[in-house]
Amino acid sequence: MMNEISNSPNHKPYNWRLLGILVIAVLVSVILITPYSLTLQSKALATAKLPMPLVILLPIQWLQTTILYGLLAAIGLFIANRIGLGLPFLESWLAGKPEWERVRKFALPAIIAGVLASIVIILLDSVVFGPMLSAEVKRLGINLSSSSLVPPAWQGFLASFYGGTTEEILLRLLTLSLFAWLGRFVNHTADGRPGEIALWVANVLAAILFGLGHLPATAAAGLPMDALVITRAIVLNGLAGLIFGWFYWKHGLEAAMVSHFSGDIVLHVIVPLLTGH
Buried-most residue among 47, 71, 131, 192 (CB within 10 A)? Predict the structure, then answer.
C-alpha cells in the first residue's frame, strides 16, 4: 500500500507563480478587512496603549500576517499538489490554457450553495440557538448591547474578501488537504488519491476547526465560552465549512472561494442592510 501511494502520478511541479497569486490575495484581503476589524475593536482601541501609531502599526501587522499566511499557503499548495487537489482553473490560466468551462460548471452552484448556507445559518441561529443564548445571557447578566458592535455593510463587503480568500487558503487548501493527505494512508483510490471516506473525514475536521476559529470574535462580543456558545460556533460555521470543503475537492479551491464569498455577502452585507446597521 505504501509503495502504491508514494508512486502516485498525482504529483505536479510546484507552481511558484500560483503561490505568488495566493500571497497577493492574502495581502489584499488583510488590508481590506482592516476597517471591519477596527470597528469591532474600536472600544478596546479607545483605551489601549499602543506601542506606535496605527498608521505605522497596521502596515507592520499586514506584512507579518502576509508572511505567516503566505508560508502556510506554500505548505498547503505543496500538500494539495501531492493528492490531486488545488486550484485547477488558475493552474490552467497560468499555463496559457484557461479552462473557462470549469468555471461555468461551478460558479452558479457555488454561489447558490453559499447563499443558501447563510440563510440556513441565520434561521438556525434565530430559531434554535438564539432563544437559548438570550436566556443564558440574561441569566448571567451580560449586557451585549453595550459590548457588541455591528460593522456597516460596506465594511462587511470588504471583509468578505478575507473570508473568501485567506480563510479558504488556511482551512481548505492547508487544513483539509493535510487531513486528506493523512487519511489517504488509510483510505485511498487506485491512483493514490484520498478516498471518499478520507475526504469526508478531512472535511468534517476542517469544518470543526473553521467553527472554532470564530470563537475569538464571539468572546470579544462578550459571550461566555461555555458549551452552548462553542456548540453554536461549530454547528453554524461548520455547516458552511462542509459545503466549502465539498466544493474544494470536487471543483477546486476557486469554487470554495466563490461559495464562501457569496455566503459572507449575505451575512455581512445584506443582513446589515436589512437590519439597518
Answer: 192
Distances in Å between the Cα of 216 and the Cα atoms of 145, 193, 210, 224, 229 are: 18, 35, 12, 11, 11
The predicted-structure confidence for 81-105, as pLDDT tens digits, reads as follows 999 999 999 999 999 999 999 999 9
The amino acid occupying position 46 is A
Decide: helix, strand or coil at residue 117.
Answer: helix
Average pLDDT, the chain: 90
Q: What is the pLDDT of residues 253-270, one digit of tens each?
A: 999 999 999 999 999 999
Percentages (nearest 5) of helix, strand, coil residues in the chain? 80, 0, 20
Contact 135, 19 (CB under 8 A): no
Contact call for residues 133 and 223 (beta carbons, < 8 A): yes
What is the pTM (predicted TM-score) of this model?
0.90
- What is the pLDDT confidence band of residue 144, given thresholds at 50, 70 and 90? low
Residue 93 phi, psi (nearest 5): -65, -40
Strand partners, 194: 188
| Better-scored residue on pLDDT, 141 or 249 | 249
* Interaxial angle between packed helices 100-124 and 227-251, expressed in degrees from 0 to 180 and rounded to the nearest 10: 170
Specify the DSSP class assigned to residue 128: I
Residue 194 has phi, psi (to 5 degrees) of -60, 140
Question: In the numeric block, which cell numbers belong to residue 58?
Answer: 497596521
